[in-house]
What we know:
Blueprint: H1 2-32, E1 37-49, E2 56-66, E3 71-82, E4 93-95, E5 97-98, E6 113-115, E7 120-128, E8 135-137, H2 140-144, E9 153-154, E10 157-166, E11 173-181, E12 189-192
Amino acid sequence: MEASINWFVIVGFALALAAVLRWIWHDIANFVNRPRLVLSHGPFAINWQSIDTEETRRFVHFEVKNQKGMARRCLAKARILKHPADMTVLQEEFPLHWADVPYSTVSTEAEPVDIGDKPRRLDVVFTISRLSGQSWLAMPLALAAPGKAPQAALPPGEYILEVTVSCENGKGDASIIRLTSPNDWEALGAEKSST
Length: 195
């Protein structure tokens, strides 16, 4: 009788150990195979002409790639690390706009996107041909109505920005850029920075 009790204990222990090992293996596999966002190319500056308003805008943007699977609910933000001494910063972090996603004057938040195997364009800063003299961080409200978003306005000068991307089911990325907000809208430009 005593031998059969030990046999049940041994089998029970083996099954419990197998379940724990399977659970650990599953967690490791999920961790290794989770999506990984990368700010792969950029920052680039391009001109874009609106068909509706015939207005030209110049954008500084990144291309964001996902290295594995489907990255869900991806968001991006910019943080001002350094700005001209005579500028007052009204807000330090700004939600950024994913290209080809509608925006409006109703919300200051950005819409999340899913990123699979095709890269997405992330708008960071923009200028407008009819409004030379400053640039704006590409938050949805500023894109819809630049005059209604004074917190996103960047007067002429040099800025250091940290751009970060994240998703709810994987790993994100960050890049620091040196941005020149120009007097002339066509001179908007940026480059990667080590600071």
